[in-house]
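Narrative of accomplishments. A recurring question from our advisory board has been how the design workflow behaves on a single, concrete structure rather than in aggregate. To address it, we present the structure tokens for one chain from the evaluation set, followed by the sequence designed for it. No filtering or post-editing was applied between the two.
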């Protein structure tokens, strides 16, 4: 905790343990966080909706339960990304065009699981329109990075990342279609795990981007990431064990031709490789396959996902950048560029990369450059939005296409004080291994958990 009189800044693990023991009530914990949100969020714009009175009522119901022992998130305040259904709230998807949407009648399955574990939803967090961009802003304003309010927290789960990085909640749900958990985690110095395909319920309809989108959590510690992932995956809390000696491929090659990591991000990979060796693992230089067809197919799927989703909205009410994306999506579909067989083939190619090279994990940069400025994108051109999003954050997308689990872990700070991070990718069903290695990083190279900017 940051202060003896408040639970703001405590981890989810600390809060849930204290609530289960009776050291504090869920109501008090939630009240503390709502007060901090009221003070801090006007400068960050992390939240779209804050459930003040409703969250207190929800917390009181947790306190009224006779047996809290089986609630791994007892009394933990959580935030939910605004494209994920929360009963009684509209699901806005970061878009004015979606704001006439009727309120959700029931929780999405991942929200149901969070609440079933004793968590209290304090609000929904902002995202860019339809989750299309790696920056989070709209006509109402820009969500800001707690480490530097002139910078973006990334996207599309930018509101969730900003809320966690500022200590407004210890855990926030996000989802990741082409990096939308991992990019904000890297921008904000957080742990962000994208589970492998089918491990956590996604069920976002046409917003599921042809199966690319996975639900997950953003946290400040590996222990909280383990806790959140276990709940969303419907598993008993995972107990991390010391991993055996691993063979880890190290690559700074960018999936996007002509883009290279800047010096701080390249040095972050070097630092992480040394940490792996220090932890007893072996590293080897090896580049994963990034065929040209991967880029073309990923772009076509991205565009077409926007087009399919937009058919529920009035095109004129969408932002100019999104309308152009949608037009290209219609063309991509008619041209036959969206191919499930191509995505399946890349998944098999990626799995073979691990097997054929006797590689357990892959280490890459998380970003290619610093988080860009916070605002000016929603009214900007499609070309500018594309350039910014793709050039600073190219490393995440391939692993959505492959459907493989990947985690972002902090490894220090840039010369300008912003966080540095790396990405670790694994074969299918390696979530527990990724979390275990992230835990080794945390022990060997602890990071600053919260940015009180």
């Amino acid at each position: 905790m940051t202060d003896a009189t408040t639970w703001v800044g405590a981890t989810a693990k600390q809060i849930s343990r204290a609530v289960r023991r009776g050291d504090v009530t869920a109501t008090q914990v939630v009240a503390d966080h709502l007060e901090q949100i009221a003070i801090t969020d006007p400068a960050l714009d992390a939240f779209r909706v804050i459930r003040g009175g409703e969250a207190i009522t929800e917390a009181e119901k947790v306190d009224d339960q006779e047996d809290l022992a089986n609630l791994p998130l007892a009394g933990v305040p959580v935030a939910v990304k605004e494209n994920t259904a929360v009963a009684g709230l509209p699901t806005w998807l970061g878009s004015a065009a979606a704001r006439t949407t009727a309120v959700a009648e029931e929780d999405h399955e991942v929200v149901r699981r969070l609440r079933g574990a004793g968590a209290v939803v304090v609000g929904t967090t902002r995202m860019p329109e339809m989750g299309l961009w790696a920056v989070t802003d709209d006509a109402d304003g820009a969500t800001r990075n707690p480490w530097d309010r002139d910078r973006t927290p990334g996207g599309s789960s930018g509101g969730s990342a900003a809320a966690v990085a500022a200590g407004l909640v210890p855990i926030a749900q996000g989802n990741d279609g082409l990096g939308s958990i991992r990019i904000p985690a890297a921008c904000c110095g957080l742990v962000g795990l994208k589970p492998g395909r089918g491990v956590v319920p996604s069920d976002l309809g046409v917003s599921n981007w042809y199966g690319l989108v996975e639900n997950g959590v953003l946290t400040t510690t590996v222990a909280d990431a383990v806790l959140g992932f276990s709940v969303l995956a419907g598993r008993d809390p995972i107990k991390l064990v010391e991993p055996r000696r691993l063979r880890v491929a190290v690559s700074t090659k960018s999936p996007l031709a002509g883009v290279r990591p800047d010096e701080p991000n390249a040095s972050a990979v070097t630092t992480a490789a040394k940490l792996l060796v220090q932890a007893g693992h072996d590293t080897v230089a090896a580049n994963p396959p990034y065929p040209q067809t991967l880029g073309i197919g990923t772009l076509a799927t991205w565009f077409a996902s926007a087009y399919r989703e937009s058919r529920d909205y009035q095109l004129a009410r969408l932002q100019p950048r999104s309308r152009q994306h949608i037009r290209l999506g219609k063309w991509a579909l008619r041209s036959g560029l969206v191919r499930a067989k191509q995505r399946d083939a890349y998944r098999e190619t990626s799995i073979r990369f691990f097997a054929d090279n006797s590689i357990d994990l892959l280490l890459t940069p998380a970003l290619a450059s610093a988080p860009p400025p916070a605002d000016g994108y929603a009214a900007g051109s499609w070309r500018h939005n594309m350039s910014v999003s793709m050039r600073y954050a190219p490393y995440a997308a391939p692993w959505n296409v492959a459907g493989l689990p990947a985690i972002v872990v902090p490894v220090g700070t840039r010369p300008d004080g912003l966080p540095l991070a790396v990405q670790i990718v694994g074969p299918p069903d390696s979530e527990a291994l990724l979390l275990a290695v992230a835990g080794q990083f945390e022990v060997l190279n602890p990071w600053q958990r919260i940015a009180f900017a």
